[in-house]
Amino acid sequence: MLFDGLARRAFSLGGDGTAEAQKDPAPTRRLRVGLALGGGAARGWAHIGVLRVLDAAGIRPDMIAGCSIGAVVGGCYAAGKLAEIESFALSLTKRRVMGLLDFHLGGSGLIAGGRLQKLLEFDLGRLRVENLPIRFGTVATELVTGHEIWLTRGSLVDALRASYALPGVFSPVRLGGRWLMDGALVNPVPVTVARAFGADVVICVNLNNDIRLRGTVIPDHGEDEEGPLDEAAGEPPRSGLFSQWLDNPARRRERRTAPGMASVMIDAFNITQDRISRSRLAGDPPDAMVSPKLAGIGLFEFHRAAEAIELGRQSAERALPDILEMMDAALAVPGAAKGSLQAVAM
């Protein structure tokens, strides 16, 4: 354990069994801890449970990098507003979630996002990213170019909105002369940002590790299964230029069983995040990873915050012994930490 290891290095037992300070105690190095909070829509409420456990264990980050919902929770934590975001999440019901979605037609997203923006501004006001007590940054994706944009200064609310602007759902946000959308398209779990901020150790929270999407290459798509077709009652015969194609049995089967738009969007988002997360984490792995078991919570089930927070808490408690052991080992390695002479968990 980290605390035990620090105590052993600072004290030794005297002959009578009492604690006796060493004559020349070695100064304790301080690890600069970075958190990388991943994207995952409603599953992101699990970040709250993880942060509560880490905070109770005395692990307080020096820098936080967030993406999408991870940016929202991480930004609120960095601003000292974790209690407020937790209270808001727990207050959500299906009806209230629908009331927050200002649908509009003719824009570049189904939801304008104005109502959510007002809620963020109520708690975060005019806070700027560069003035937060904890160093914070979030990731967004530039429209057209696909550039990965790190938002490390300017309006905190605008940075959060840009990072969670899911394509097709929220309208993109214009910042610095660029149109920005969800950072999960390029860096769903921004370990790289936390490292660039100077973290000695990085703890990441991956919200999608439990979704179990392990796609591979299938060289032959196979044949459609044959079977009787249940003809739609009362469907009139088709006529015209495309009637033969439209009345093809396989085409009729596809029309009746094709997934809806919501299902397509959710599956596409899950697949994209899984593939990109695996690639990015393989290239720059964290020092420790917390992976809540969130497969049973849908991407847009924001009203299930209590369940997600509890699952985050459970996953952090399972990972805590390994995290503390990793940090203790890092402190024992000469030159592993370059910060001031103070223990990280006090």
Automatic annotation (TrEMBL):
Motif DGA/G in this chain: 182-184
Domain of life: Bacteria
Alphabetical keyword list: Hydrolase, Lipid degradation, Lipid metabolism
Motif GXSXG, residue numbers: 66-70
GO terms for biological process, alphabetical: lipid catabolic process
UniProt keyword Lipid metabolism present: yes
Residues at the active site: S68 (nucleophile), D182 (proton acceptor)
SUPFAM superfamilies: FabD/lysophospholipase-like
Single GO molecular function: hydrolase activity
Protein name: NTE family protein rssA
